[in-house]
């Protein structure tokens, strides 16, 4: 075990970070891959410019998230859905009112039905924001992004107790930012790339940024990745992840920097199971945690977007105070 004090590291890390700033816990627009201009979309704006509707019943919620055209869907209170995955169409913002609004029983699907196509279809789901929602007891995934969906921002949610993944991204989806979420009371947390045999759809896609998330005693898939390069994992707080933090596999490349790992058995590895991936590791804090298993080459995320890295020793406090619902 590496037993290093965060306070002892603070002076070293402040000097070593290439860009240090105090992050906002309520960005008005996404940082990372969801901000990039690509695939005919300039950044991620969700339902901006469309009508705003407040929903409090399952029927109204389902109708609003699948309606055509831009729309801001405000969720009031906890809505119980029948078991299943419910489609969110393009140009939507789905946002909770207050700290205790969201859905239970079902999950959200952002993407077309599964097929074997290997290039983004013209009608791929895009420009979706999921924000400030509580997700509980989904009978499948809590949030699933699939089939070349792009420009998706999943921000400031509280997710736990699903049957499968809390946030899974797969089948050629790309330009996604997952930020300021609190995940807890769940084992298989976040998957990026669903299968070792899906190179035809996934190669060149699955570009995702994970930042300022609170991975709270979630044993594995924090995230587990395949094929995406770069996958940017920065300024997240990991605590008591009993199996592994970042698991970067099968030709994926993870750029892992400025995170705070506390009581994590294996903070990161590129040889977790199946074919290896690559990890570049920089300026992370390890408190009572194991050694990182890294190697290989990864694209630098700064080739796609600019960002400021918070001082790693401050990340625990920033994330525990700022992640989850009721903060925007």
TrEMBL record:
GO terms for molecular function: lyase activity. It is found in: Secreted. Keywords: Carbohydrate metabolism, Lyase, Polysaccharide degradation, Secreted, Signal. Residues 1-25 form the signal peptide. Residues 48-267 form the Pectate lyase domain. Pfam families: Pectate_lyase_4. Belongs to the polysaccharide lyase 1 family. This is Pectate lyase. It comes from Lentzea sokolovensis.
